[in-house]
Amino acid sequence: MARNRLTIVISQSPGKHPAKRSLEEAIVAALLGRPEYEVAVVPNLYDLEPDHSGLLFLQAVRGDLVVLSWLYPRAAFWILDRHGIQGHFGKTQLGKAEEEASEEAEPSPSRETQDQTEAPEQAGIGPKGEIPSRWIYPVDLREAERAEEVLAEIERIAEECQQRQAKDATKDAVGAAPPVWVSLGLALQRNGTATPNGTVHPFSEPPANSVHPPPEAGSMTAATFLEPTPRRWYPVIDYSRCTNCLECLDFCLFGVYGVDALERILVENPDQCKKGCPACSRVCPQQAIMFPEYKSPAIAGAEIGATGSVKIDLSKLFGGESGDALSLAVAERDRELINAGRQAVGMSVGIPKRQSHKTEQPKDELDKLVDDLDNLGL
What we know:
With about 375 residues, the chain is of the alpha/beta class. It has helices spanning about 20-30, 55-60, 75-80, 95-105, 110-115, 145-175, 245-250, 280-285, 295-300, 315, 325-340, 365-375, and strands at about 5-10, 35-40, 65-70, 90, 135-140, 190, 195, 225, 235, 255-260, 265, 290. It has 12 helices and 12 strands.
């Protein structure tokens, strides 16, 4: 896999929706025979298990990467990170024109509303290790109605990557030391070819016995890695937001979370998570936990503030049918405990204490609303 070729991976929809399949096939057909692209097709990104050949292919990609999936870009990016496929987040423009037109048509939200919808200001702990010098562009295919829209975005990304590579090459040429021929030994060779600039890329090669070799330049076929995958359900952590507060570890009673040698939170046993239960996502103070296939955009990985102005449902706020987020999370956890033959624990275990260390703050409009309702005896 040449580092200067743009790798495009199509992650299939988990179902067999004919319109989605048709869009995927149209994109692949249009990309075949393009020597500047390396094309591969894998099952649903979220469902890939550690030993799946599609995941091994992704882990072997060295250069810039475009991942077309039916997930929110933020969710797709951190699924890749979970499997050691790291890079800088590449922003895409697909669907931006419609969003900008919608924003122009609607009145701008007040500063107070913006504060409620923006992501938490506290910085996350960030991804583990050194980030490779390449970019990953997760593209949400739900933003496109026609293959032509996706292909135009791929062309734009390819041009952006070429410009960045040319700029980096110029910097390397200016700051490069005189060549030292002794450094070009066998230790720097991979598959018989020395790596550029005498460096070893931190990406593993495909297994020697791989039955899916990468396609040759200009190939009329795409590499396919379509072994059947079971449907999965597990949390995905956005480490750009996660502050390692460990509230998810305290709240979850099913052994899903753990910590690594550096005491960083991680999803240790993903398949122990209870299907359809997003309770830990609701208690995360930084909104750093995603369930990419959940029905609610905020939990599935949509960017904070992407859904417009906030609307407060008082029936939910004051213990109505759905209750507040914490009460709902506790109810979801108790339901799964009972389904597993265990005792419900309610609010007695793992309840966040994130407010205990905070100093008294001036009351905001929501606090005043609560006080007014209390005074009315409601």
